[in-house]
Amino acid sequence: MDYDPGPPAGLAQHFADLPSYAAKRDCFWYDWGPVFYRGRLDGSARFLGIASDPGPTERIAARTLVGDAGQRVQGFLAKLGLTRSYVLVNAYAYAMLPTKAPDARPLLSDPQHKAWRNRLYDDITGPPLQAIVAFGSEAQRALHLWDSKPDVPTFELPHPSSHNTPALLHEWGQAIPQLRGAVEPDPDGDADGPNYGTSRFEERDYARIPDADLPFGMPAWFGDDSWGRTAHPQHNNSVERPGSDLRHTLVWRAPTNQP
Predict the structure, then answer these.
(1) In this predicted model, what pLDDT tens digit does every residue of 127-164 receive, in sequence order?
(2) Percentages helix, strand, coil for the chain, rounded to the nearest 5?
(3) In angstroms, rounded to a whole number, what is the distance separating the alpha carbons of residues 54 and 47?
(4) Whether the model pTM is above 0.90
């Protein structure tokens, strides 16, 4: 069975030493706790992806970028031929509440938070690293604050959940050939597939989250929301926060007719 056993002891301690978000807790979905990573933590990753913050699907898995945005990122990795040699993290360990990004940003440059985050980025990257992508403005701010950033090709791209889909597809599509030239694909990957279109995400642009990225015991269908993307009405995530209670309630929906 393939699953993520979790962080090694030293990195788990660093996660536990996360500086307090209490001063800005009103900006975050605070009561559900932090989510830190997805992918390889041992310095073997050839690709580092930084996004903004985790969301409701991420809370279920305790791994980042596993919902609709994460499956788009997994599709992005698949276009580079990467099936395993990547690590994904965030600018913030807690999920931000909508519209709160401007109020939360002082945490990014707070000395304790900056030092903690930069040490994390240092600890999970090593000589194999070949490229960094910062998805969205919060990730890009965190990237600019990483004083010891490795000297590898770096890309600043729209966040996968950007509402300006044509611009997102255009910028992601422009980056794919450059990244294919910079990042060695995994032996079982295919970096010769089609690039993005111009107006909307196709199902081929998504990829399911590998079992190796998820903790033991997740449902077999978790990390693949293609069933929701073709449902009526359509829903791109199996987990959501109802607008009536953003702080304390999750709704998790399973596909019907499971074997």
Answers:
(1) 999 999 999 999 999 999 999 999 999 999 999 999 99
(2) 35, 10, 55
(3) 19
(4) yes
